[in-house]
Design brief:
The protein is built from twelve helices and 13 strands. It has about 400 residues and is an alpha/beta fold. The protein has three domains: about 10-80, Winged helix-like DNA-binding domain superfamily/Winged helix DNA-binding domain (Arc Repressor Mutant, subunit A, Orthogonal Bundle), CATH 1.10.10; about 90-205 and about 375-390, Nucleotidyltransferase, domain 5; about 210-365, 2-Layer Sandwich (Nucleotidyltransferase, domain 5). The chain has a five-stranded mixed beta sheet with strand order 6-5-4-7-8. It has a five-stranded mixed beta sheet with strand order 11-10-9-12-13, sandwiched between helices. The protein has a three-stranded antiparallel beta sheet with strand order 1-3-2. Belongs to the ROK (NagC/XylR) family.
């Protein structure tokens, strides 16, 4: 048997390992003293101070004034803080009808937001051009230069493999620019981390939403089309070609039959009902029948609207049940533009789930609203920055 080669623990390697350890602690904490860092990392005082000096020189850490403590004996403790403005990240959601761009600092706090409608886009190049415009606007609002952006997470409504390639087997997926990542990098210079929108949604929920602390999690994007992001034991699932969580199989599910999401199904059912002139409903008073109008009418007690939502809930329960059977998540979060209104469906969905699966998940609606994908895209970019921090060259603010 041949043993694996052993890499010598050189001083430079140890310094890098220790820098990564300290940066990991500081990036999730507030102000810390040298003593606090010693306790958190187990490193010696000399090592903590030497490595913090390195991180200060690199721009990742700032040293604060020691402050005054009249009760302390000896030299005051040095105080360190992660530099959340050492660089910036972008979270970009490129949907079928709209793109949303978030600019965030390195703690994930949003500094600027911009968007563009994509409803009239005819070509992938036009779509990319409008994304570029929204990025430029967000950077200008926060007075941030391209050179200060360390990474951009980008979500698209199509499967994306681990190498960042868009799967184009479906006609809907072919609407997206398959060379999107390269085009944005050429325009701006920063690395583009392409990912499926539902996968980013589950990252966002796990980070800032209903899924915090839950590692077996599914997010069901439920607007015009159903799509799901899946997390197992805290690990995002992709599949061999990025197709994990895709829901074309719903065409084979009795009582579902297609991938139409809650918004489209609600709207279609309302239009079908209104085709009968004898039906009495307040929906006839609206200028355009939308899912939002149906939910509003149901909230006001309209019996026709309530009947439509019962039907939509029954269909959605079957969709959620398939996730419970296939991947057995602890929680399924309904997300996207319909999330807030979909809360009206939860009692009916939960009541029916136990009849479809012996492992029914809990169901909740997202608190992130229509920002669910862009928030997840920010988290995706931050993951990249944290992983590669010691290899990144920071551009200091002018």
């Amino acid at each position: 048997m041949t043993s694996a080669p052993v890499t010598a623990a050189t001083p430079a390697l140890l310094r890098r390992v220790n820098a990564g350890k300290l940066l990991g602690v500081l990036s999730t904490a507030g102000v810390m003293t040298g003593t606090g860092l010693i306790q958190a990392t187990g490193l010696t005082r000399a090592t903590v101070h030497a490595v913090c000096n390195d991180l200060i020189d690199m721009g990742w850490v700032v040293e604060l004034d020691p402050g005054r403590d009249d009760t302390a004996v000896g030299r005051p403790s040095r105080r360190f803080e992660f530099n959340s403005r050492a660089g910036y990240v972008l979270g970009i959601d490129i949907g079928a009808g709209r793109t949303t761009v978030l600019l965030a600092d390195l703690r994930g706090e949003t500094l600027a937001k911009a968007g563009r409608s994509l409803s009239s886009v005819k070509t992938p190049a036009e779509r990319t051009g409008l994304v570029h415009e929204a990025v430029v606007e967000a950077l200008a609002v926060a007075d941030v230069r391209d050179s200060q952006v360390l990474a951009a997470g980008v979500g698209v409504a199509a499967p994306v493999d681990r190498a960042g390639n868009i799967l184009v087997d479906d006609e809907f997926w072919r609407r997206f620019d398959t060379d999107l990542g390269h085009r944005l990098t050429e325009l701006h210079g920063w690395p583009v981390l392409l990912e499926n929108d539902a996968n980013l949604a589950v990252l966002g929920e796990h980070w800032r939403g209903q899924g915090q602390g839950i590692d077996d999690l599914a997010v069901l994007l439920a607007g015009e089309r159903f799509g799901s992001g899946l997390m197992d034991s805290g690990r995002l699932l992709h599949g061999s070609r990025g197709g994990a969580g895709e829901m074309l199989y719903l065409k084979l599910v009795e009582g579902v039959g297609d991938t139409h999401g809650i918004a489209r199904t609600t709207r279609d059912q309302a239009v079908a009902v209104l085709a009968d002139p004898t039906v009495r409903t307040r929906l006839r008073d609206v200028s355009e029948v939308t899912a939002e109008e149906v939910f509003a009418a149901a909230a006001a007690g309209d019996e026709v609207a309530l009947g439509i939502l019962r039907s939509v809930a029954a269909r959605t329960a079957r969709v959620v049940a398939t996730l419970g059977i296939l991947v057995n998540p602890e929680l399924v979060v309904i997300g996207g533009a319909v999330a807030e209104a979909a809360g009206q469906l939860l009692p009916d969905i939960e009541e029916q789930l136990a009849g479809y699966t012996s492992t029914p998940p809990r169901v909740a609606v997202s608190s992130l609203g229509d920002a669910i994908v862009s928030v997840g895209a920010v988290r995706h970019a931050l993951n990249y920055v944290e992983q590669h921090a010691l290899d990144l060259v920071l551009t200091r603010s002018a």
